[in-house]
Each structure stands twice: as structure tokens, then as C-alpha cells.
Amino acid sequence: MSKKRKGRPRAYTPEAFLKKCYEYIELTKQKTYDIAVLARGETVALPKKYPVNIYDFCFFAGINRDTYFEYRKQKEYQDCFAVIDTYIKSVQYSGAITGEFNSNFVARINDVAEHVKSNITEEKIIKVKFGE
Fold first, then answer.
1. Are 96 and 108 spatial neighbours (Cβ–Cβ below 8 Å)?
2. Percent of the chain having pLDDT more than 90?
3. Which whole-number Å values give the CA distances from 41 to 7, 26, 36, 37, 44, in the listed order?
């Protein structure tokens, strides 16, 4: 006897979801936005990489964040998430390294932070009197 899923049917089969992942990757590889910079006394448009993230992908795929994280738990979707998560993190990290994106923000949204460990020890204070 097979288990029947409860609730709404899934928006994507694993194959369709993987296809959507590749569509997002192709779209965002070509997508840029311009910022205005001053060069030799003139304002020029400088193209910048499109900043990809999970929420943007969810909007593109027409799913909400909860659905994304629910799919991620399912074994049959593991290949999909290996692709989309690797792509998103790769773009974010390379953008942070090259200065394209704010490295502090990228570290924060990916739970990557420097940890400083300090060790405080109790010190004895010795009083010394000179020339009394």
C-alpha cells in the first residue's frame, strides 16, 4: 500500500522544478542593471551583475518561501537544490569577493561570519613600593 500525500498537489514535479532552475540560471546570467558613475566629468551607466537570491528564485518560479524549503526536504528534489543553491551561492560569493555585492550582506544572508574567540584569564595584581 502506497502512502498518499495530504494537502494540495505539488506545483512542480522534480523534473519540472529542475527545468525551472535552469531557466532562472539562464535568465539571470544575462540580466544586469546599471548604476550611474562619474567618469572624466561625465555620468555613464555601468552595468552590474544581477544579484540572485532564494526569494528572487521563488518569485520567478511562482512558489512561496515555505514551498521552497518544503521541497528542499524531499529526497526527489535533491538534484534540483544542488543546482540552484550552488548557483545562487556561487554568484553571491564571487560578487562579494570582487566587490560587486556587499560582502557583509552576503556573509549575513548565508550565515557566514568570522568568529573571534577570546580567552580572558584572571590576573593577580602585585603591588610594589619603591623608596619609602
1. no
2. 42
3. 61, 36, 12, 10, 9
